[in-house]
Amino acid sequence: MLVLGLETSCDETGVALYDSEHGLLADALFSQIDLHRVYGGVVPELASRDHVKRMLPLIRQVLDEAGKSNVDIDAIAYTAGPGLVGALLVGASCAQALAFAWDIPALGVHHMEGHLLAPMLEEQPPAFPFVALLVSGGHTQLVRVDGIGQYQLLGESLDDAAGEAFDKTAKMMGLQYPGGPEIAKLALSGTPGRFKFPRPMTDRPGLEFSFSGLKTFTLNTWQQCQAAGDTCDQTRCDIALAFQQAVVDTLTIKCKRALKQTGLNNLVIAGGVSANQALRQSLEQMLADLNGAVFYARPEFCTDNGAMIAYAGCQRLLAGQHEDLSIKVQARWPMEQLPAL
Ligand code: KG4
Ligand code: ZN
Fold first, then answer.
1. Whose CA is nearest to atom 21 of ligand 1?
2. Which DSSP helix (H) or strand (E) runs through 25?
3. Which residues pair with 271 in a beta bridge?
4. Banded pLDDT at 114 (limits 50, 70, 90)
5. For ligand 1, is residue 141 a contact (CB within 6 Å)?
6. How many whole angstroms from 226 Cα to the centroid of ligand 2?
């Protein structure tokens, strides 16, 4: 089955062609980062309008790259939520219009299920069951995964998502959007141990997260340095490292707890923050101690992309799922509501 995947939940237009027998055939992405950067974050209306502009040229591009034409496509998978409603509607409308014109089925895919399954596109995919840490701009969740659609939420953030904390902290320190990669870059030159930041909610049992206080702690530290006239590049790097290390340690401690609680020793990390090298190294070390393994997607498939939507959609379409031609999207959509395959 050849599936065209469309991703438009936020500020990336992602398009891909996934074949159930031959794997990923082509994948193209247009990132709107430069468009939103001047505003310090995503402007939803600009995002929607840009998706409209990019979608059809990207579809033509992946078809050309794969040497396929529209008659070869068996079904279309598109992100139906969660995300920005206007942006989601562009992908949904485009998918349903093409499905109608080409007389093929379309299926709305859950964006976080797309992220969660992205490591399946790699050479050594994880086997079920496993624990998944989903860390994106909008979500921080620990999930027990027994199969596609068999998701048990173990814990999540009570306030900011991990990626959101990276973005907001970076903005406070005058860094560009998106903040995660910027902080990671500065942290490479940071002095270990100069600042010690808290590891929120690790001193009590449970698998919940809270990153909002850490963000404020970082702001206070930065303001104290500014007040003391210490705003040199090295200080920025030192604060970036202390912040990143606090997030990484907190995520590692909670992942270890989740693995212990479930008795599992395979961990999947997915979503934009899973591209973070310090997080990967920390989790790899922890899993090595537990004789387990950590799985993640290649960096470009950690952040938003069409390949993960094409893959997740293909699994559900192969199981016979599809929908009518109505255009439905959901800004909020708990992943546990998805049907099991
Ligand atoms: O999954 P994603 O592309 O979009 C959402 O579904 O939200 O994640 C984007 C988030 C942003 O908050 C961005 O700052 C963060 O992922 N991110 C990173 C890194 N690369 C992207 N955070 C930390 N380190 C990185 N290397
Ligand atoms: Zn995402």
1. 272
2. strand 23-31
3. none
4. very high
5. no
6. 34
